[in-house]
Amino acid sequence: MKRVIIFGPGASGKSTLAVRLGEITGLSVIELDKIFWRPGLVPTPRDQWVKIQQMLVEENGWIMDGDLGPYDAVEVRLRAADTLIFLDFSLVRCAWRALRRSRERADFWLWLLRYRRQSRPVLMDAIADHAANATLHVLRNPEALRRFVADVVRKYRAGQTRPGN
Prior knowledge:
By secondary structure, the protein is α/β, with parallel strands linked by helices. It has seven helices and seven strands. Helix 1 runs parallel beside helix 7. It is globular and about 45 Å long.
């Protein structure tokens, strides 16, 4: 686990998981939302986003969190990743978390509502096409997430995995 991508619908906990895994592994965490969205929540044009990602994936080890839905160009990250984590949480759970954390724009809510039918299938196809050699972890509930993190902690404590190896 040296090049990690975390996907999932809005408010599924991608950034929280990325920070936690960064603490455990020592890998740098890259929050894609902070890089992709320009002031006023204007998206980065696709050709520029591809170039930015090409630079980001050149680093030795990283954890990238972010799912930009229809704006994304995931193939660059997928080809470079060795580990994929998909937080496949329910709409109700994500909507509740989004309501608790902040006010969101209408386009966020539309994306969240359509995620399972539209974004998820596109993402799964992209994973099959561009990340066949990566390990995919699909976590469908908080208990599965807790077990996954506990397993990563155990492996790092046991010395089975070292940052940068």
